[in-house]
Amino acid sequence: MNFKKIYGLILGVIVAGLTSCSSDLNNEEKAPVSPNETAKRALSISTGDAKTRSEVNIDAGNKWVTGDKFMAYNRTFTGPSSESRFGLLTASSTGTRTTLDGVIACKDNDELGIFYPGSYVTGFDQGKMSVNMTASYINGNKGQDGSKENLKYFDYSYGKGTVTVNGASASGSVDMKKLYSVLELDFTAGGVKLTNIKKLVLSNVYTEAVYNIPNNELENYETGAIEVNSPVELKKVYVAILPKSHFSPTFEVYTADNKAYRFTVNDPNFNLVAAKVYPITVAVKEFTPNPPYIEIGDVKWGKYNLQYTPNSKTVGWKDGYHLAKNPWDYFYTQSSPMTQQQSVRDVDDNSKFDHFRWGDISYAYDYSYNSPDVVQHYDGSTGSILKKNNNGYGDLPYYASNGNWRLPTKKDYEDLMSHTAQYIGYYSDGTNDILGVLFVPNPTDRSEIGYTVTKDGKTNRVSNSKAVVNNLYKPGWADNYKAANSKLIKFTKEDLDKGIFFPAAGWYYPDSKKLQNPGRQGTYWTADAVNSTQAVSFTFTFDAQQATFTSSVGLVSFNPHKHTMYSIRPIYIGQ
C-alpha cells in the first residue's frame, strides 16, 4: 500500500471566545455571587471561525449549525454537590461564527473541558463521552457511507478554556481539536482504479472509545471493523477513523458488479495521527468472500470435513460428495461424548457418511462390511497418493472435487501445528457437544503459536511432535469435560471463525457396523503411506478415564491400517 503525502490538518483548530457569562443568583434574597464563588452561571460562548465544526468540509471552509450540542465540564469545580459541574451548550445560529448558550456552575479561573457532540446520558458519568465510529447517535445510529458529507456525523472534537469572571460576565477562549483522522481512499485492482464501490469493511481498527473530559484523554478503546455502506457507487471513499499506532488494517472492498477485493497491511510501521487527512491508494486483489477455507501460510485449509450423501448434487463436486455445512458437523453426532467408553452408532450400507478408506475412490461411498472386495479396497501404494486418480484409487477429495481440493500431507499437518495456536475444547451446537481442536493462525497472544492451549494457557509444544496434556478434567465418563474446573475451552461461533476446527468425529472399523468413539477422538487421513497396508494419519484423543488429551501426526507407533475409515479435511487448490 502506497501512502501518499499527508496534506493539511483536518479542519484545523478554532478559538472560541468565552463572553457574557452573566451571574445567576443562588438564594432567595438574590444577592450577587462573588466571582470567586462557584455558582450556576448563564454561559454564552462566542466562537471563532468554524474550522472544525459540524458542517465538515476538508476542501473548503466549514460552518456551525443552529442546534449543535456541546458538553461543557468544569474540571476545577469546587462547589457543593447540589451544583452541576457540567452543562449542555447549544449553537444559537448557523454560520462561520456563532454563540453557544447554556448554564454551568463556575467561578473565576475555572477550567472548562468542552466536547462535541454533546448529550446527557442517563445513568452514566456525564464527564465520559462515547466516541463511536460505526454508528452516529446524532444521525439515528446510522453508520458511515463513504461520502464527505457524512463526516459531520462523526465529527468528535474537544477543547478547553479558562473562565474569567468579571461581575456579571466572564470571558475566555477555547481551542477545539479533532479526536479523529480522515482516510481519503482510492482503490486499484491490477492497476485499474475501482469506480463502482458500494461497500468497504475496514477491520483491525479502533471502532469505539470513551473521551474522558476530566482527564482530557481517550480510553476504553475497542478494536473491530468499520463497515461503510454507500447508497451510490463511489470512486473515492472517505472514512472517519480514530488514530492508532502501528496501523495494520485489512481493507475489503465490494463493488456494484458483485466482486470483492482485499488488502492487508502486514508491516505495521505507520502511525495515524489525529486531525489529519490521509490520501491513500490501496492496491487490492480480488478474493472470494467467506471462502470455505482459511489460508495458513501458503496452504488453504478447508473449514469443513468431506462428506458423502446419496443422491445429493453440489456444484463443483461429483454426485453425492460435498463439504459439511458447519465446521463442527459430522454424521451420527453424540449428544454427550463422554457417556461411555466406546460410544457407537449403527450405520446402514450406502448411507450418508464422512469416513473413508485410504486411497479408495471407486468404493469410497460403500460402507458394506460383508464384501471382502469393498473392505479391502484401499490403495496399496507405498508413497504419496497426492492428486492421484488411477483405476479407482488415489486422492479422494481431488477426484470428488474435480481437481479443486486435495488430501493434506504429513508435512501440511506439521506446518499447521507449527503456524497456529491449538486450542483444546468443545463447541455446543444447541443439541450436541462436539469436542475438538481449534487451530488459530493469528491468536491474540502470538507466543501461543506452536503450542496447545487450554483455559490455563499454553502447555505443550506440538509442532512436528506428539503432545500430551494431562488433568484436563476430573476422570470419568460423565460430563466432567464441561465442569467449572475443566481446562477445556467452550468455543463460541466467533471463536471458530478465527481458525479451523477439527471435530472429534471418531472412526469406522471395516469388520463392524459401528462408529468408534464419536465425540472424543479425531482421526484424519494424510496423503502419505507408511507401507502397502498402513498410512500416516493425524489424530487426537480425549481420554475420559485419564483426563488426558493427546495429539500426534506421523507417529510410527500409530499408523493405522488403510482399510480403517477415517475423516478427511481437504485443502483447497482451485482458482
Question: Secondary-structure map with pairings?
Answer:
Layout: E1 2-3, E2 7-9, E3 14-23, E4 39-46, E5 69-74, E6 86-91, E7 99-106, E8 111-116, E9 128-132, E10 157-162, E11 164-166, E12 169-178, E13 181-189, E14 192-193, E15 197-212, E16 217-234, E17 237-241, E18 250-255, E19 260-264, E20 276-286, E21 293-296, E22 299-302, E23 306-308, E24 321-323, H1 372-375, E25 389-390, E26 393-394, H2 396-400, E27 405-406, H3 410-418, E28 421-428, E29 433-440, E30 451-454, E31 457-461, E32 467-469, E33 489-491, H4 493-496, E34 500-503, E35 507-508, E36 515-516, E37 521-529, E38 535-543, E39 548-553, E40 571-572
Parallel strand pairs: 13-20, 28-30, 28-33
Antiparallel strand pairs: 1-20, 2-20, 3-4, 3-12, 4-7, 5-6, 5-8, 6-7, 8-10, 9-15, 10-12, 11-12, 13-14, 13-17, 15-16, 15-18, 18-19, 19-20, 21-22, 22-40, 23-24, 25-26, 27-40, 28-29, 29-34, 30-31, 32-39, 35-36, 37-38, 38-39
Describe the structure.
The protein has 575 residues and is mainly beta. Helix content is 4%, strand content 40%. Strands 1, 2, 9, 13, 14, 15, 16, 17, 18, 19 and 20 form an eleven-stranded mixed beta sheet that branches. The longest helix has 9 residues, at 410-418. The radius of gyration is 32 Å and the shape is elongated.
Kindly summarize this structure in a few lines:
This protein is mainly β and 575 residues long. The strands form eight sheets. Strands 1, 2, 9, 13, 14, 15, 16, 17, 18, 19 and 20 form an eleven-stranded mixed beta sheet that branches.
